[in-house]
């Protein structure tokens, strides 16, 4: 159910779905609170190396997520805006690096370009360095072969997780643009916004550490 236009007296009341969620942390299981919700998004930040214009727009993303406490559906435009900033950040990185890009390249192509240029690696996404699920098939396997679910750890200097993002983020943006309610679940939206921030931070990492990747050799 979508939230109808709120009346002034109810503007700052929490969305019932927000307070119906529970969380498990060091204190045990307890109801979700506004402080918890704020803490979640406050921890997702872009570094000072990211161009100021992009960082300023990202504050709108964070505020959209924060105010989803009052209007649950605000998580979807937060996701859509964050994904739009990924494309904007890559274009700006190309401009600053003097890298030519196809004029009408989409998000998928831009992400793949970023990987080829060495601007992104798995270690830009700390949560990908733990165990992650991946489908593994022999190269010659027919399409009808059932996939094998395996668990692996992404190599920090590899690009396997980045390649997955290049395939998945454009699909997520398309879903968000069509108002996919499935992206509105706060934990899902938060992780997507976090991924977008990590992309921007990775693209401009060298602005803080010019030699950070001089010796990196992607491995997986």
Strand arrangement across the biggest beta sheet: 1-2
Number of strands: 4
**How many domains would you count in the coordinates?**
1
Distance between the termini: 43 Å
- Determine the structural class based on helices, strands and strand pairing: mainly alpha
Residue fraction in strands: 5-15%
What's the helix count? Answer: 8
Topology as H/E string?
HEEHHHHEEHHH
Radius of gyration computed on alpha carbons: 19 Å
Taken from the alpha-carbon principal axes, the silhouette is: globular
The helix content, as a percent range, equals: 40-55%
Q: Overall pLDDT, averaged?
A: 86
Largest sheet, strands/sense/barrel: 2 strands, antiparallel
Low-confidence stretches: 212-220
Core attributes:
two-stranded antiparallel sheet, 220 residues, single chain, globular, mainly alpha, 8 helices
Could you explain the architecture of this structure?
This protein is mainly alpha-helical. It has one domain (14-208). Helix content is 47%, strand content 9%. The protein contains 8 helices and 4 strands; from the N terminus they run αββααααββααα. The chain has helices at residues 16-20, 34-42, 52-67, 75-97, 107-116, 160-177, 186-203, 205-208, and strands at residues 22-25, 28-31, 131-136, 148-153. It has a two-stranded antiparallel ribbon with strand order 1-2. A two-stranded antiparallel ribbon has the order 3-4. Helix 3 (52-67) packs antiparallel against helix 4 (75-97) and helix 3 (52-67) packs antiparallel against helix 7 (186-203). It is globular, with a radius of gyration of 19 Å. The N and C termini lie far apart (43 Å). Residues 212-220 have low confidence and may be disordered.
């Amino acid at each position: 159910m979508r939230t109808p236009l709120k009346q002034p007296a109810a503007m700052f009341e929490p969305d019932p779905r927000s307070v119906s969620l529970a969380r498990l942390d060091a204190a045990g299981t307890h109801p979700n609170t506004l402080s918890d919700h704020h803490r979640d998004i406050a921890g997702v930040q872009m570094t000072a190396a990211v161009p100021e214009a992009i960082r300023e727009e990202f504050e709108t993303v964070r505020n959209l997520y924060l105010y989803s406490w009052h209007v649950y559906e605000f998580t979807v435009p937060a996701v859509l805006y964050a994904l739009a900033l990924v494309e904007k950040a890559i274009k700006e990185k190309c401009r600053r690096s003097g890298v030519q890009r196809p004029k009408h390249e989409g998000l998928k192509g831009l992400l793949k370009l970023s990987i080829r240029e060495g601007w992104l690696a798995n270690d830009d996404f700390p949560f990908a360095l733990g165990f992650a699920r991946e489908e593994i098939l022999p190269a010659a396997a027919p399409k009808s072969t059932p996939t094998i679910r395996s668990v692996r750890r992404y190599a920090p200097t590899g690009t396997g997780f980045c390649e997955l993002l290049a395939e998945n983020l454009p699909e997520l943006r398309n879903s968000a643009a069509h108002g996919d309610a499935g992206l509105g679940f706060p934990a899902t939206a938060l992780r997507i916004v976090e991924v977008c921030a990590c992309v921007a931070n990775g693209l401009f990492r060298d602005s803080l550490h010019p030699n950070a990747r001089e010796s990196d050799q992607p491995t997986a």
